[in-house]
Amino acid sequence: MKRKIRVLVLILAMALGMMMVWNVSAASEEYYQVFDDADLLSDSEEESLNAGINNIISSYDFDVVIVTTNSLDGKSVSEYADDYYDENGFGVGDEGTGLLFLISMEDRDYYVSTHGEAIDAFTDYGIERMKEEVASSLSDGDYAGGCEKFLNVTEDYITAYNEGTPYDSDHPYQESKNYFLRELIALVAAVAVGLVSVLMMKSKMNNAKPQEYAGNYVKKDSFKLTKEKDLFMYSRVTKVKKEKEEKGSSTHTSSSGETHGGGGGKF
Prior knowledge:
Structural class: alpha/beta
Number of strands: 6
Radius of gyration: 32 Å
Shape: elongated
Order of helices and strands: HEHEHEEHHHHEE
CATH architecture of the domain at 29-177 and 259-266: Roll
CATH class of the domain at 29-177 and 259-266: Alpha Beta
Number of helices: 7
Strand order of the largest sheet: 1-2-3-4-6-5
Helix content: 40-55%
């Protein structure tokens, strides 16, 4: 009887140990989400980007993928991005929520493909705004920097979406406080320089004292008004219809029948 109890205890202990090992491995599981087929990134840059992506996945349950390629295989940039996402089974949850950032060197294109809840989190406005953030780095050949900016903006967008206010035309995306601080310092400096310049020029001028009345500037008896008349010629009122800014996200269907949002451009 004692032997059977020892065996049972041993089995339970082994089972508990296996469960603990499985939980530890599951908690430390890391997804490989950077596919640098165009070889634009160093190994350390890939590792850094992959770590950032895994942080987003674990924190927000949004899948994020970065892909670089030298060829679109005859597809448009949007078709390539959508198909890459669908065919490789990316996405979190029942809706397959996530987004893919594609850099194509074939014609120097970049594209963001969204799926599931990411379509609502990344509106048409948001995609356009994101493009402004990453395009300059890509144009300068700083591909790692462009991808880092993409991840930073992605986290900001997901946070806003989770708070119930995704960035859109009526809720514009704001740059970092550091950016505004730099702009404010530059503005103050410009105003200061301009003010000093004006004061220096004014100090060198020898202006006559201004007169209180305009008539003081007219020579006595040199101006005589013989006739005056007011004529109203015509008036024209032009009305221009203000275009209403579209909100939300436009979508399309990929070759596999999945619904995607997104957008891109050249660099």
